[in-house]
Fold:
Amino acid sequence: MKQDMIVILDLGSTDNTGLAREIRGLGVYSEIYPHDITPDQLKNLPGIKGVIINGGPNHIIDGTAIDVNPEIYSSGIPVMAASHQTAQCQLSLESWPNDEKAKEQLLKNFVFDTCCAQPNWNMKNFIDDQIELIRRQVGDKKVLLALSGGVDSSVVAALLIKAVGKQLYCVHVNHGLMRKGESQSVIEVFQNQLDANLIYVDATDRFLDKLAGVADPEQKRKIIGAEFIRVFEEEARKLEGIDFLAQGTIYPDIVESGTKTAKVVKSHHNVGGLPEDLKFQLVEPLKQLFKDEVRACGKELGLPDEMVYRQPFPGPGLGVRCLGAITRDRLEAVRESDAILREEFKKAGLDKTVWQYFTIVPDFKSVGVRDNARCFDWPVIIRAVNTIDAMTAAIEPIDYDVLGKITDRILKEVKNVNRVCYDISPKPTATIEWE
Ligand code: XMP
Structure:
C-alpha cells in the first residue's frame, strides 16, 4: 500500500467523519475504527502512523462509560486524545485552543511532526492500490456489476475494467424510467469507449406493463424495485461461473449503517434484495471513499463530467416523477421537459450550483388556450433544491429569465402540456421527490 494512515478511534464522538475528512484534506489518508480494537489489530493496519482517540457524548453505552484499551498508549504508535463535539475539532487536553486556525495547526503538528505521516493520499495512489487489491481478490474469476449509470456504479465499473478487463460483466437494466439519453451514454462510454463486457437489457415494456394502472406511490416503488431484482437475477443466472459481485458502496453507507457508539442513521442497503441463492463474494473498491472523492476518482479514471458530476437520481427513476398511474405519453412529457430543464440549467451555469433539479408531471389536466382554441392538457412542475444531506432541503430561487426560457421551451416542445409551475416548498414539509 502506498499511503500512510491516521486512525481515528471512535470513542463516542458525533463527528468522526468530519475529522477523517479534515485529515484527508491534509493529504493524509484516515479511517475510523471502533474504540475496542486491540493494540495488535491496530499495529497491523497497513500504513498506520498515528491514532486519534475521538471522544464525545456517545461514550456512555447502557449507562457505562466505554474506553480504549490502555495498552494502546504504550504500543509505540503516537496517540492523541481529542473531543470532536461539533464540526470543530477540540482536544480534550487543556492545551487545545479555541481558535480555529490554532485548531488546524495542532492537527497538522500531530499528523506531520509527531506521526511523520507523508501527504501521499491522492487518487492516483488510491487507484494503483485498488487495482492491486482487486487483482489479488478476484484472481482469474468473473465479476458481475449492476451498472445503473450513476456516479458510484460507473466509477466502480471503470476501476474494475482497469483491474480485470473482460473478467467484469456489467449489466445495465433500462427500466424505461431513465432520463433522456442516459442508457445511450452508458453504452457509449462503457461498451464503445472502454470496451467493457456490457449486457444491455431493455426491459421498458416489462416494467411499464407491471406498473400499468398502479397509482399508489409505495406500490409503484415496490414493483420497480422487485422487478429490477428479477431482471438482474435472470441475467446473472445466464452468465456462468460468476464468483464476485461488485458494488458501489461508499464510506457514508458504512458509517451511516451504525457504529458501536452511534445510532443507525439508515441501514446500508446495497446488499439487500438479492436472492440468497445467488451466492457471490463482494468487491467494494470505493467503500473507503466519500462522495467527492468518488467523483475525483472517476475524473482520474477519465470518465466524462456528465457522469462524474451527475446529480442524484432515485432508483425508481422518472417513475416517481410521473405521478399516479404511469402512462407512456405522460412519461414522455416528464422525460422531454426534464431534458429541457437540464439543458437550460447547464447553459445558465446552474448545474454547478443546484444540488438537484427536475420536472414532475401530475396526473391531472387543466384548461388552457392554444391556437385560439380551448385545450385541456397537463402541467409540468419544476423543482430545484439545495441540500447538504437530503434530510432537509431549501428551494433554489431561479432567475425569472431562466424560468421564462424554460417555460417557453417546454410549452413549445413538449406535447400535451399547457402550463408550467415552479415548486417553492422546502423539505420539510414537502419531500424532494413528489412520490
Ligand atoms: P426525498 O424525496 O425523500 O428524497 O426528499 C431525498 C433524496 O433521495 C432521493 N431518492 C431516492 N434515491 N432511491 C434512491 O436511490 C430511491 O428510491 C429514492 N427516493 C428518493 C431523491 O431523489 C433525493 O435526492
Q: What stands out?
A: The chain is about 35% helix and 20% strand. The two ends are 45 Å apart (CA to CA). The pocket of xanthosine-5'-monophosphate is lined by residues 312, 314-316, 356, 390, 427, 431-433 (CB under 6 Å).
